[in-house]
Amino acid sequence: MAERPQGLCKAICYLTSPNKSVDCIYMNFIVEQVSDENTLKEIYRLRYKVYVEEWRFEKPEDHHQGVETDEFDKYALHFAAKDNSGNIVGTIRLVLPSPKGFPIEEHCRLNINRDKFPSNSIAEISRLAISKAYRKRTEDSYIYGPLEERRTAIINNEQGRNRRSDDIYNTEEPQERRRRHELVLSLYKAIYHESKRRGITHWYAVMARGLYILLKRCGFEFTPIGEAVSYHGVRTPYIGDIKEIEEKVLIKNPALYEEFTRDLKIEI
Questions:
Q1: Largest Cα–Cα distance in the chain?
Q2: Given this model, what pLDDT does residue 143 score?
Q3: pLDDT band at 180 (very low <50, low <70, confident <90, very high)
Q4: Residue 134 needs a FRET pair 20 to 30 A away by CA distance; which of 48, 180, 182, 221 works?
Q5: Which phi and psi angles does 112 have, rounded to 5°?
Q6: What was the pLDDT predicted at 58?
Q7: Cα(3)–Cα(1) distance, rounded to whole angstroms?
């Protein structure tokens, strides 16, 4: 069955904190699952611009012709967020189970019993990339980590040494904080829908602390399953239980839950 574009998300209303009134953001992005080669190359070019040119997470000599790819791309579902002009301004992928395993298993030492999970129940969210035109300095801190975390290649595992206070992510104004969620949530909604359709029950993710905090504020709570590592900056491995995330979002942010579950169709 042909994939249906995720459509324009008109508005999401959510609580900025339990004691504050409801705020709204407007999600003016179309998110599509991509499989044709031309659009995939556009995604890979955006990833190259972000991961190679802007933040130097990857070496240019490892990626030719201005595209950033790896061996997991052929096992992944790729999503592209487009603005009202049809330009790709964000991307994310969902790496499915395969004999290759997952990127998180190559880069992190995991404190988890993998045998507890059915073989096809876990997928990994990775390669979140947002166009610079839709990022500000505060958003960079959330997605890619504070400057000192992005640049460092040395991890000191002493308790608290690289544990950043949440205050480092609280410098922007409330309206800017609301706008920051828009594109990231649009991409995560697409990931959620496809995961539900495929019977995925858990997500792996390797994230900067800021992205973990951003998602947690929306009710997407992930559990750390290993020590921080130097991989595209300082990153921590996490796992998320989709059922538990649904329950927490429903309680913490009912309007967001309604938006995410609207038009969700699961084939049995």
A1: 51
A2: 57
A3: low
A4: 221
A5: -155, 145
A6: 81
A7: 6
3-state secondary structure of 23: strand
C-alpha span between 226 and 127 (Å, rounded): 19
The pTM is what? Answer: 0.79
Q: Is 201 helix (H, G, I), strand (E, B) or coil?
A: coil
Specify the CATH number for the domain of residue 37.
3.40.630.30
Query: CB of 144 within 8 A of CB of 55?
Result: yes
Number of domains in the chain: 1
Give the residue carrying structure tokens 């030719």. Answer: 64
Structural domain includes residue 73 = yes
Close Cβ partners of 183 (under 8 Å, ≥ 6 residues apart)? 27, 29, 81, 89, 90, 130, 134
| Cα separation, 207 vs 187, whole angstroms | 15
Neighbouring CB atoms inside 10 A of 129's CB total: 26
Does the residue 95 lie in any domain?
Answer: yes
Higher pLDDT, 151 or 98: 98
**Is residue 2 situated within a structural domain?**
no
Handedness of CA 211, 247, 102, 94 (dihedral sign): negative
**Domain containing residue 141:** 8-261
Q: What is the pLDDT of residues 28-56, one digit of tens each?
A: 689 999 999 999 999 999 999 998 888 77
The two tokens of residue 219 are 């009710």
For residue 105, pLDDT beyond 60: yes
pLDDT at 213 over 50: yes
Q: Is 33 left (phi over 0), alpha (psi -120 to 50) or beta?
A: beta
